[in-house]
């Protein structure tokens, strides 16, 4: 896959646009550069006015900043989306079965499908959950699965985000801004809506509430607070869901039940959509220094009186070493072949994998198994010899902490800049909602774009941006 020219989703320069993108190509040809510049400026103004920012820890010069937004939408056909949707549903179903198993019967370990140390020594494996079952055996209620494309037909899963996946607020705001700024282009297409995501999320959370009358369930969004990097999203989702945004100090536990402090007195809480990591949820069970969580929360959870989404211990499935086994999990639990492929992955914990990786650091992307946000990784072809040598030393010192993958020729989409329209590499994060009654996936997701020319790193913390994702008819009719 490395060394191959990237597949451009609109079509290579100088060649006719792919049928799906003909109207976009024509619109770009018809739209003066100064108008595109005006739309870019308007988009930035709108995002600033909305207040949608992203915090970057450790960056004193950019403590709060906008994630850049590219105004040119990305198009995916309905036929392509149906295949993605089926593969995503299959994958998340297998991940939930895996989580039920590793805290329960451990068949996956007993039958040697996964080495036990990958589970039992995983920093996100929670012994407190051994022998416990999540309500309805749903652990990852909200999953963000990162997808990359390499040619006209092939999509690969790059990463599973099963702890507290973020980005859905950008998916929704991107659509709002695009519809307001590009009404003429939007009107030329039949675009599947994403604005029902809050309703789907609310239905998903209500379906796992412990009380019998779920229509009366009280749901809250638990945030670490104003200084968290994703605080905007926490407040945005609470507002869209029509539920309270709370911090740990707003909740208390009595008789193994969780209550919210209100001006009308205590109100029982049934479902907590938490955006706080396990370690900080309950100082009586995890980090005793935590002031972000609620003392006694885990006791109430284990008593079955409150549902936590995502469930405690879900992070064991949000691991790049476990990722490499997900096709095996699908075969093991579902007796099916994976509908979506993994990117080929080399495990440095295995001697052959370690040898292969160290000999080819100039060709591979190396990642920490528990890394995120584009940190703790080496993009070999774009690194200097000194950087590769430094990273090789890290790998040798702790091989089990690293996996490696080929540098895929990620697909590109057109993006608008001051100097004109140019292709940039993209990925896609669809959001999969698993409830007691069904799996829900809104058609689309968050397209992340590497705005630096030639860069493959789309993470917002590393300078990446976002764009709207349109699921449209397979071949749009001509105007």
UniProtKB/TrEMBL annotation:
InterPro entries: ATP-dep_Glu-Cys_Ligase-2, CP_ATPgrasp_2, UCP005522. Residues 73-450 form the Circularly permuted ATP-grasp type domain. Gene3D superfamilies: 3.30.1490.270, 3.40.50.11290. This is Putative circularly permuted ATP-grasp superfamily protein. It comes from Roseiarcus fermentans.
């Amino acid at each position: 896959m490395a060394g191959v020219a990237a597949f451009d989703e609109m079509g290579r320069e100088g060649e006719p646009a792919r049928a799906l993108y003909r109207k976009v190509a024509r619109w770009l040809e018809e739209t003066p550069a100064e108008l595109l510049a005006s739309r870019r400026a308007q988009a930035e103004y709108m995002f600033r006015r909305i207040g949608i920012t992203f915090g970057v820890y450790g960056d004193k010069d950019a403590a709060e900043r906008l994630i850049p937004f590219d105004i040119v939408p990305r198009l995916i056909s309905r036929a392509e989306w149906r295949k993605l949707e089926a593969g995503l549903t299959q994958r998340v179903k297998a991940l939930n079965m895996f989580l039920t198993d590793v805290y329960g019967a451990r068949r996956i370990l007993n039958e040697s499908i996964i080495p036990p140390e990958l589970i039992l020594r995983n920093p996100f494996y929670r012994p407190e959950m051994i022998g416990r079952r999540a309500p309805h055996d749903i652990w990852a209620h909200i999953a963000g699965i990162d997808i990359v494309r390499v040619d006209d037909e092939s999509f690969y899963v790059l990463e599973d985000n099963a702890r507290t996946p973020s980005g859905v607020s950008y998916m929704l705001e991107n659509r709002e801004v695009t519809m307001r700024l590009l009404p003429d282009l939007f009107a030329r297409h039949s675009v599947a809506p994403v604005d029902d995501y809050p309703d789907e999320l609310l239905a998903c959370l209500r379906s796992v509430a412990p009380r019998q009358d779920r229509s009366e369930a009280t749901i809250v969004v638990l945030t670490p607070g104003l200084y968290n990097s994703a605080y905007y999203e926490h407040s945005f989702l609470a507002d869209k869901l029509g539920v309270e945004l709370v911090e740990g100090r707003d909740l208390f536990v009595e008789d193994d039940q969780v209550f919210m402090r209100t001006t009308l007195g205590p109100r029982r809480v049934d479902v907590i959509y938490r955006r706080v990591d396990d370690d900080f949820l309950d100082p009586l069970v995890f980090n005793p220094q935590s002031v972000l969580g609620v003392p006694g929360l885990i006791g109430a959870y284990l008593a079955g009186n409150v549902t936590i989404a995502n469930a405690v211990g879900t992070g064991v499935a949000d691991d790049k070493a476990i990722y490499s086994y997900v096709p095996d999990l699908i075969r093991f639990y579902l007796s099916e072949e994976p509908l979506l492929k993994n990117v080929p992955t080399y495990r440095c914990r295995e001697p052959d994998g370690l040898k292969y990786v160290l000999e080819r650091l100039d060709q591979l992307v190396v990642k920490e198994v528990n890394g995120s946000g584009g940190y703790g990784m080496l993009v070999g072809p774009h690194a200097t010899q000194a950087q590769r040598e430094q990273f090789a030393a890290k790998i040798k010192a702790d091989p089990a902490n690293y996996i490696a993958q080929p540098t895929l020729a990620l697909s590109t989409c057109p993006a608008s800049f001051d100097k004109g329209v140019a292709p940039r590499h993209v990925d896609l994060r669809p959001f999969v909602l698993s409830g007691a009654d069904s799996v829900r996936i809104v058609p689309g997701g968050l397209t992340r774009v590497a705005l630096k020319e030639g860069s493959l790193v789309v993470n917002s913390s590393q300078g990446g941006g976002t764009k709207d994702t349109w699921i449209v008819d397979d071949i749009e009719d001509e105007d």
